[in-house]
Amino acid sequence: MALTIGVDVGGTKIAAGVVDEAGAILARTRVPTPADPQWAVDAIAQAVRELKEQHPGVTSVGVGAPGFVDSNRSTVIFAPNIDWENEPLRGRIEELTGLSAVVENDANCAAWAEFRFGAAADHQDMVLITVGTGIGGGIVLEGRLHRGRFGVAGEIGHLNMVPDGLQCGCGGKGCWEQYGSGRALRRYGREKAAADPVRGRRMLDLNDGVAETIRGIHITEAAEAGDPLALECYAELADWLGRGMADLAALFDPGVFVLGGGVSDSGRLLLDPVAKSFEHYLTGGVHRPRAEVVLASMGSAAGIVGAADLARTPA
Description:
Elements: E1 3-9, E2 13-19, E3 25-32, H1 37-54, E4 58-65, E5 68-69, E6 76-79, E7 84-87, H2 89-97, E8 100-105, H3 106-117, E9 126-131, E10 135-141, E11 144-145, H4 182-195, H5 201-205, H6 216-224, H7 228-252, E12 256-260, H8 268-281, E13 292-295, H9 302-310
Parallel strand pairs: 1-4, 4-8, 9-12, 12-13
Antiparallel strand pairs: 1-2, 2-3, 5-6, 6-7, 9-10, 10-11
Helix pairs in contact: 1-2, 3-9, 4-7, 6-7, 7-8
């Protein structure tokens, strides 16, 4: 059985694993992400060599990078969290490890894992939406990862939802992730608790009475206990997510939307209102088939597994 290595490069850690053809991780390792972007390449290679020594039968490596990757799955055009710009990552990894390599956007890797082995395994057309600090995603159409002409498709968090809206870290204003992300959920909780401390008492009590630093975990805990104001925060988040998903359905007509990312750990607290919102905003409403809306199933393994499987998958 062919074995490949998948690498998930994050801003603070680099996680890697040996993965078989069934998507099972046979061995893992992780190293801190160095502050120097050039040392980061060496750290990736170090992790790969360590796993290669344990499993000499490894044939190739896939690297999931947090940024724009070119159409050749070779160069990281821009990765702000690592400070890479036009980084020839594939060539350097091949040189340092002796393995053939492919490089892919990390969200695309996660989407591919959910498509091949996870929540979307029964579908040929799917969209992954990762709801974390921002919104990320990946798109699979007719069984192929949709990368676009230049390799940078799938940046769904930067769909413009509100003209001249909230400032986004990308430089634009009104991006979807400013309204449908974990950062947005925190903002909703802080604003609502500050505006109405009586109704916000449960969230405030969970944070020592301070509205300005309420975190997502406080909102989630209060919502799970049935707190009306915390549930309103989730409803607002879900409303924005459903709006964006309806737009994506109009473009791609997927069979399933998969919700991943840290905020999706809240389970049906997020899933149910998002599915309802999506149905409400979907163009054509009852006159068209509706995609399923499900939770991701691969968890933190998605990036490693997806990158490793893409290493054995023709572009």
